[in-house]
Amino acid sequence: xxxxxxxxxxxxxxxxxxxxxxxxxxxxxxxxxxxxIYGKCNHPNGHGHNYVVEVMLCGPVDPISGMVVNMTDLKxxxxxxxxxxxxxKNLDKDVEFFHNRPSTTExxxxxxxxxxxxxxxxxxxxxxxxxxxxxxxxxxxxx
Length: 143
Fold this sequence. Notes:
Belongs to the PTPS family. By secondary structure, the protein is α+β, with helices and mostly antiparallel strands. The protein contains 4 helices and 5 strands. It has a 5-stranded mixed β-sheet. Helix 2 crosses helix 4 (105-119).
């Protein structure tokens, strides 16, 4: 007999934190333009944040396992895509993605999104990356 059980869709979120330094600076702008646009965040010696990252997946709940994906797998993917590549690093100097683009929180979200999609078994399940740069500055990216 075929399994006619309805497939339910669920949203699954895992949160992590990482610390990193950066300097908001664009090589495509003059020093004056960089200072005007980025203000104190353009300080030549940079500054740091304790980022909070939420990775949300969306997909069908498997009727056998009862999960969208195994949370351990999501934890492992975040470890590779976020923690190993960015935690306690200088984003501008240590992460190649930021060598030619400003390390804004928007670009950090894009980097995490792209990194996760490269290593996930089912990248189409990735729904959202949300980053809290501070309590008041939050970026959401959905591809």
